[in-house]
Write a structure and sequence with these properties.
This protein has about 180 residues and is of the alpha/beta class. It has one domain: 3-Layer(aba) Sandwich (Trna Endonuclease, Chain: A, domain 1). Helix content is about 30%, strand content about 25%. The chain has 6 helices and 8 strands, in the order αβββαβαβαβαββα. The strands form 2 sheets. A 6-stranded mixed sheet has the order 1-2-3-6-7-8. A two-stranded antiparallel sheet has the order 4-5. A hairpin with a 5-residue loop joins β2 and β3. It is globular. The N terminus is likely disordered.
Length: about 180
């Protein structure tokens, strides 16, 4: 009887990022790992479709890490100078801090750039992740063979497209990353 060995994928954020980019890359025009969004938090994988819809993928290698994601806060920055005026430094040196809201409350309300949001977990966490997965989030699963399975498509949170004004920030981010790599040679 011939025995075959079954390779089991190494669970690490880096391997999961690579697998996602390899297996899901044709679905997106742009994919950037560890991208800092304009509102200050980091997306494990920032994806943009040709339609300019943004998909944020959060990689979680433990259920406690996934639960902690629901506690992340998001700073609400003023949109106009008039709104910002109340946060300016006062003559006595004091300053009113910008308000904060939980990131997932903002996602659910469609207040962030992200049009679709998904968690990406290894096969070992799939069942537990499904139990705590919110309705507004999708779920990708990193399989034992190192491939990606879309368990639940991320639902559309809002229809606002990424404005071209954000392209400068994306290009600056990519340029900085390229230069850092180039300078290591």
């Amino acid at each position: 009887m011939l025995q075959t060995s079954k390779a089991v994928a190494d669970i690490s954020v880096r391997n999961m990022q690579r697998a996602f980019m390899q297996y899901m890359g044709s679905s997106f025009q742009l994919m950037i790992p560890n991208y800092f969004m304009p509102n200050g938090y980091e997306a494990d994988i920032f994806c943009m479709r040709k339609t300019r819809y943004v998909v944020e993928v959060e990689i979680k290698t433990s259920i406690s890490d996934m639960r902690a994601d629901f506690k992340k806060s998001h700073t609400i920055y003023p949109k106009t100078a008039e709104e910002a005026e109340k946060y300016w430094r006062q003559p006595d040196g004091s300053r009113t801090p910008y308000p904060e809201k939980l990131k997932h409350d903002c996602l659910q309300a469609g207040e962030l750039l992200t049009n679709r949001f998904a968690f990406f977990v290894p096969w070992t966490l799939k069942d537990k992740a499904i139990e705590i997965l919110p309705k507004y989030a999708g779920l990708y699963v990193f399989t034992e063979r190192g491939t990606v399975h879309e368990h639940k498509a991320p639902p559309l949170l809002h229809k606002r497209k990424l404005d071209v004004s954000h392209d400068q920030g994306v290009l600056a981010n990519l340029n900085w990353r390229y230069l850092r790599l180039w300078m290591k040679e």
